């Protein structure tokens, strides 16, 4: 790294080092960055390239090289550090240098193959740190090729500085009505964890169970009352208490966004720093650990559950012949492997109850006791979409369908035999449909030719082209051929119409075979969907959640209402092997019960009310005068309550020594 003491970084250099650190995954040594930056005469582009190539900064002309190796007192402080991404096996394509060897052109050509890209000057705002070129698709590209081109363009024009945490002014952080609160981490690599915690709040069973939980006092300490609770700071109770405070703030706080940096310290969150990895895998592991901690605390460390009754938050008991201890808090579902099972229910049936004719030795799994909550991780292959050379275009991935309501009865032990009979009958109907479709194909095609079209062409010939030359025998022959062709065409059309009607009826019977009252006792409703658009960064992961009958989309700090159809048919990320990757369902309940406010502890409500008032006092007077807090009527006097140490809203402004005052007035 070179010897000697470096002169302290200037403010400009400190800013550039922070940017370099973000580019390198948050693990860059600031002294190392300063040496490399100065070695290249403070040229940020060259310094970034040098760091990617492993430059250590050796050889810099340093006027203080004869001084001992001492750390400067004001070494620039950079952002939060996270583990570096895996080292790529292939050389990195450097987008900051001149493309003399055509490396970028070859990469684009490999992606679009038959459509060479057109390069042009970028119309983005000038950026002194990066110089990018935008790519536009050539005229005549199909719709899916244009979508692929746009995806490549987005990945090439992505600037790491655009993914840095942006802190909004206070006046832009006012929650509007019942709009959900966004959860935001500073580090982009843990955005998936924030989205999962955010989604769990909108599962009413999870929200109510967490709100009703209170930790038992530690062994050896005095038995505390429900009114006096000591928050745990370690062990499995710590993450559950963190969720309790976080959820209460999401319900009652008047900020439109909450920082979760402090909250995530309570969870073992692994960062998603490698764009080649699937965020769904990290989400699955995080959810699995979270479910275990929550169920453990709700049963064994719950002041409000002295009988230690079990609480099923996301675990189900499968067939005991397989394993009585298997955790099915999240079911992994393969997507896109078979077009015949490209929906959630069919995919579950293929995995839990496979066809005996195709897999005679496969084990049948049943659910012994269904949980209140069930999650699904949608697994997609990471290979790029196939290229169809015959038609000269990339084939579009089919949209995986998941319903807003699903019934699990057909997979439960109590109704498995009945469901299996229905499923067997369904397979017979599907086989009949295939046979009819084959018969229809034989009627309409012969040797890859359209038989009906050929017959109609022949009829056209005899009706409009053939001439009798005034010969009665020839005229009669033409007439007879016309009649025969008309009869054959009408017969074929009638047969095809009959086949189509039968296929339509059989499909309707097949699709509704399992839709019967006997298999519709255990209904689960969709609560949340988490989506990845295929690229890397905080803005490329987002979620849909349902709150009080409305669906909301959350991208970083932006929360907008969307129609239900958008949630159930979002095609984002299909061309990049991405898309919706995590689904949360829970037992159906009456709408009034679903929308009811959770029973938050009084001390939490007091703390949040106090924080709301501190927040309002920091707003400009003209803005604060227009803000209405539905949780604290304007007639309520100011209170002197202090928030707990883990309260999310503006903790630096709270005086922890103050006594609690007037309780929060809440309205549903």
UniProtKB/TrEMBL annotation:
GO molecular function, one term: cysteine-type deubiquitinase activity
Coiled coil residues, start to end: none
Span of domain USP: 181-588
Region (Disordered): 54-97, 110-133, 623-668
InterPro entries: Papain-like_cys_pep_sf, Peptidase_C19_UCH, Ucp6/RUP1, USP
CDD domains tied to this protein: Peptidase_C19 (cd02257)
Top-level taxonomic group: Eukaryota
Amino acid composition bias (Basic and acidic residues), ranges on this chain: 87-96, 657-668
GO biological process: protein deubiquitination
PROSITE patterns linked to this entry: USP_3
Name this polypeptide is given: USP domain-containing protein
